[in-house]
């Protein structure tokens, strides 16, 4: 049953065999014997792909539940004897906040659980948790697969920022509508996008665009620092740049939607090591986000921006 679930989830004998650390031929033979025992074909095999039959689809859901519960019971038994153990594979974004805080969180977690080894994989793109054999992912975008289990653990404040030199040369926008006259660094490969802003009970939408786009907040931050345009960045990422004068906030009286942070797993019945890590990570990141920098607080406390830079200039297209 467990072998069938592994093959069905990965839709590949070779990938399942690698995950199970057994020969492909042995795995294929065991599945064939299983199908012969029940008298039904569960998998359709061709030279190019592997697919579940109607019987396989119906059996997979129940088999997955049984296998996961059995694995969890085994993990609980081992954990009672010596605590969580084994390899924990975690995927995370390359954003500055993740690079800054996750190493300390993971180090503190492994100090509590000496039999655990944690592999932290930073990447910009979404991953396939099943095919790439990860225990969980930390992400800032909702996954496309509806079958995945998503848990929101916090939100990061987002603001608009630009280099002082850019604002002096191109002017400072006074209203979201003014962004149409500026070079805006987009997070998606498009010539333009519609952003939503709110202030009190007022909500407006503004069409923004620019010649640069990038799906990495770290690279977008660097482009903004070098004067390439206005970027929507997490406040926690640019705190140092604000204090050092490399970036200045733009349209501070308008709010933009925050960036939500999620933990994603393939099932609600996660092993003990995963459950312990999720609880620990949630607690630590919630503290980081709640005690992190606030743009409104920074503007109120600093009050030291160059008055020349703050003075609105006439609109100018880059």
List the SSEs and their pairings.
Elements lengths: L1 H9 L2 H8 L3 H15 L4 E3 L4 E3 L1 H29 L3 E7 L3 H17 L3 E7 L13 E4 L9 E8 L1 E5 L1 H7 L13 E2 L6 E8 L2 E8 L7 H9 L4 E5 H9 L4 E3 L8 E7 L6 H19 L4 H8 L4 H4 L8
Parallel strand pairs: 3-4, 3-5, 8-11
Antiparallel strand pairs: 1-2, 5-13, 6-13, 7-11, 7-12, 9-10
Helix pairs in contact: 1-2, 1-4, 5-9
Report on this model:
- This protein has 318 residues and is an alpha/beta fold.
- 42% of the residues lie in helices and 22% in strands.
- The chain has helices at 2-10, 13-20, 24-38, 54-82, 96-112, 164-170, 217-225, 235-243, 272-290, 295-302, 307-310, and strands at residues 43-45, 50-52, 86-92, 116-122, 136-139, 149-156, 158-162, 184-185, 192-199, 202-209, 230-234, 248-250, 259-265.
- It has a 5-stranded mixed sheet with strand order 4-3-5-13-6, with helices on one face.
- Strand 9 (192-199) and strand 10 form a beta hairpin.
Radius of gyration: 25 Å
| Overall geometric form | elongated
Strand order of the largest sheet: 4-3-5-13-6
Which residues sit in consecutive blocks of at least 5 with pLDDT less than 50? Answer: 304-318
| Helix amount | 40-55%
Mean pLDDT score:
85
Strand pairing plus helix content: what structural class? alpha/beta
Give me the strand/helix succession.
HHHEEHEHEEEEHEEEHEHEEHHH
In whole angstroms, the N-to-C terminal distance is 62 Å
The total count of helices amounts to 11
Q: DSSP strand (E) fraction?
A: 15-25%
